[in-house]
Amino acid sequence: MIRDARVLRAGFVPREVEHRDAEVNHLSSVLEPITNDEPADTAIVTGPSGAGKTCISKFVTERLREEVLDVEATYVNCWRNHTRFRALYQILDDLGTTIDIHRQSTPHDELTNRLQEYDGPRTVVILDEVDQLEDPSIIYTLHDLPQFAIICIANTEEELFSQIDDRLVSRLRSSEHVRMDKYHDDQLFDILRARAKWGLDEDVIVDDQLYRIADAAAGDARLAIGILRTAASKADRENCDRITDDILLDSAEDARAQIKQKSLESLTPHQRVVYEIVRDHGPIGPSEIHEHYSDDVDDPRTKRTVRTYLSKMVQYNLLEAEGTSRDREYSIVDSKVASPMG
DNA sequence: GCTCCACCGGAAATTTAGGGAA
DNA sequence: TTCCCTAAATTTCCGGTGGAGC
């Protein structure tokens, strides 16, 4: 029943982007100077999750590379590569200049030097989830090098600007800003129908079901496609020739759980223990968290380190904090959005 | 208004981990 | 193996914040 599984994967970039013509054209025009071997402006792409920020950024750069020979592109997920070293390493790795760079014994400056010395084709650097960078100075470094055009992707402008220093803020304010909104239900339906058409056999899923997925996903294309993918593979495993309503209902829950699971996998064992304490006992204050935590592990870290864990998990949207001082309490983020799938 | 105190988070110091060279 | 180097993680220290109780 699954014709082409790639189409249903999260990172898939389609040949045609639906309902984002204005944004695609806007971003293309910002990068346009590159086609004449001239430096391009930095672009900032903002919008809620699942609005298609990553998708159109990759789409536009891929199309650019089809049109022009001497253009490179590199994609950095700053959430996974949140240190300056890892982000720089990822870029240099894509450019093929990391042959003799080793993770542990190469100074930071060496990576910066490599970047400055780079004299290959002009390169578009997509910095996804850029507000997750621990040290945003990498934006500054790249911004100064005419060889690189940067696309900064973040949820909101405020989140991005709150992380970086004033000098850079004033520079970025003059950058081109592509704003994206959540998809409407009918737009999401079109996206799903296109994916179903290429990814699944005919009649595996009916329009009414696609509408219900669009409705349940509340404007989030990543979630919508995740639900479709989960439903298709579930039906495939169960040897059904079409997706039943029961399967669809289960898949909506599973797809949400999967997205959260991905975040949890990036936590260290100690961080995981802290998360589980908050999940089981929350809302709960920091002292109590540390007491439970010290009981649960053999070699507990200090309160200060646990505070760092907690603020990190708040940033990752796994936990939420209420109160500012002595009244502060942590609880897990409730991802159960009312689901109209039934 | 004052003091206490749990908590926050920045900065610097220290420890840990992992790779290369001799 | 041992020594040396560096990034990353952690700890130590500490000033700042803001409820709670008086």
UniProtKB/TrEMBL annotation:
InterPro entries: AAA+_ATPase (IPR003593), AAA_22 (IPR049945), BlaI_family (IPR005650), Cdc6_lid (IPR055237), ORC1/CDC6 (IPR050311), P-loop_NTPase (IPR027417), WH-like_DNA-bd_sf (IPR036388), WH_DNA-bd_sf (IPR036390). Residues 39-184 form the AAA+ ATPase domain. One of its GO terms (molecular function) is DNA binding. Gene3D superfamilies: 1.10.8.60, P-loop containing nucleotide triphosphate hydrolases, Winged helix-like DNA-binding domain superfamily/Winged helix DNA-binding domain. CDD domains: HLD_clamp_RarA (cd18139). Coiled coil: none annotated. One of its GO terms (biological process) is DNA replication. Keywords: ATP-binding, DNA replication, DNA-binding, Nucleotide-binding, Transcription, Transcription regulation. The keyword Transcription applies. SMART domains: AAA (SM00382). The keyword Manganese does not apply. Involved in regulation of DNA replication. Belongs to the CDC6/cdc18 family. This is Cdc6/Cdc18 family protein.
